[in-house]
């Protein structure tokens, strides 16, 4: 099956961490983008020697259906020193275009899921799919009262991507959505909005057992640093979760 490419035109850029940009695009061909939250796009480009390459980026767009023609397509991009993709995006002016394809992937909430709780675990830009899932989670909270725990690992408070949005969602759904930021290096300053009761000091995998994973009620999602994904995968299996109830996606920084 042939891969269908389409141009994405950059409409806005903002830094959401010292080395992470949130980029907004529209499809310049005027077509809709039929995506399921949790899926990713691929951006295609060439190295200086002309060799073709590509990078994958989860869609960050908060949507519960297809992105219509002219609507915003959003991704989060980690800037890597000396990286070819970093050079591509840093050199992209507003109105400039990139070549994309997709969406791809099955790291999505499944319609047949009958679980009582989702354990969403992520680090870095691996939290991007969970931002896109927020409308679906809100629907599931309303429809069948699911519980959600989001364990999000970052080194410092300024690297907590979309933290304000997740905190606002937790405040809106205090009985159903729990946001647990885990900082490995630096905790938020006392009295700051980020210094709430669910903040932890350490790595996400250190705190997984605190939430008592249960095969009878839970489906877990793991996205981000491969070491974290592997550690949490083993911990969840040890806790008794069958492999089909553990959904994984590893993020590896590429130059």
Structure description:
This protein is an alpha/beta fold. It has 2 domains: 5-104, Translation factors (Elongation Factor Tu (Ef-tu), domain 3), CATH 2.40.30; 117-250, 3-Layer(aba) Sandwich (Rossmann fold). The protein has helices at residues 84-90, 128-144, 163-172, 204-207, 226-238; strands spanning 5-17, 20-27, 40-46, 52-58, 73-78, 97-104, 117-123, 147-154, 177-183, 200-201, 218-224, 246-250. The strands form 2 sheets. A 6-stranded antiparallel beta sheet has the order 4-3-6-1-2-5, with helices on one face. Strands 10-9-8-7-11-12 form a 6-stranded parallel beta sheet, sandwiched between helices. A hairpin with a 2-residue loop joins strand 1 (5-17) and strand 2. The longest helix has 17 residues, at 128-144. The model has no long low-confidence stretch (mean pLDDT 92).
List its traits.
255 residues; alpha/beta; Elongation Factor Tu (Ef-tu), domain 3; Rossmann fold; 2 domains; 6-stranded antiparallel β-sheet; 6-stranded parallel β-sheet; 33% strand; globular
Low-confidence stretches are none
Question: By CATH's scheme, which homologous superfamily of the largest domain applies?
Answer: Nucleotide-binding domain of ferredoxin-NADP reductase (FNR) module
- Taken in chain order, the helices and strands follow as EEEEEHEEHEHEEHEHE
Please give the largest β-sheet.
6 strands, antiparallel
Q: What is the correct CATH architecture of the largest domain?
A: 3-Layer(aba) Sandwich
Query: What's the CATH class label of the largest domain?
Result: Alpha Beta
Output the number of helix runs.
5
CATH topology of the largest domain: Rossmann fold
Query: Portion of residues in helices?
Result: 10-25%
Number of domains: 2
Shape by Cα distribution: globular
Task: From the alpha carbons, calculate the radius of gyration and give it in angstroms.
Answer: 18 Å
């Amino acid at each position: 099956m042939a891969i269908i490419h389409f141009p994405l035109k950059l409409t806005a850029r903002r830094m959401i961490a010292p080395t992470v940009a949130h980029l907004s695009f529209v499809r310049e061909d005027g077509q809709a983008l039929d995506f399921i939250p949790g899926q990713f796009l691929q951006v295609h480009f060439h190295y200086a020697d002309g060799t073709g390459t590509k990078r994958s980026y989860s869609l960050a767009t908060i949507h519960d259906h297809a992105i219509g023609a002219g609507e915003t397509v959003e991704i989060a991009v980690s800037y890597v020193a000396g990286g070819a993709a970093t050079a591509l995006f840093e050199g992209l002016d507003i109105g400039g275009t990139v070549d994309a394809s997709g969406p791809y992937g099955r790291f999505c909430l499944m319609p047949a899921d009958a679980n009582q709780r989702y354990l969403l675990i992520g680090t870095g830009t691996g939290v991007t799919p969970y931002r896109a899932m927020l409308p679906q989670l809100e629907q599931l909270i309303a429809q069948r009262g699911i519980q959600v725990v989001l364990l999000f690992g970052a080194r410092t408070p300024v690297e907590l991507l979309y933290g304000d949005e997740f905190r606002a969602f937790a405040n809106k759904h205090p009985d159903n959505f729990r946001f647990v930021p885990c900082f490995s290096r630096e905790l938020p300053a006392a009295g700051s909005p980020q210094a709430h009761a669910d903040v932890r000091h350490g790595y996400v995998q250190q705190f997984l057992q605190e939430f008592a994973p249960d095969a009878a009620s839970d489906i877990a999602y793991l996205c981000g640093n491969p070491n974290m994904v592997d550690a949490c995968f083993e911990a969840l299996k040890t806790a008794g979760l069958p492999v089909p109830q553990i959904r994984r996606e590893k993020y590896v920084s590429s130059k």
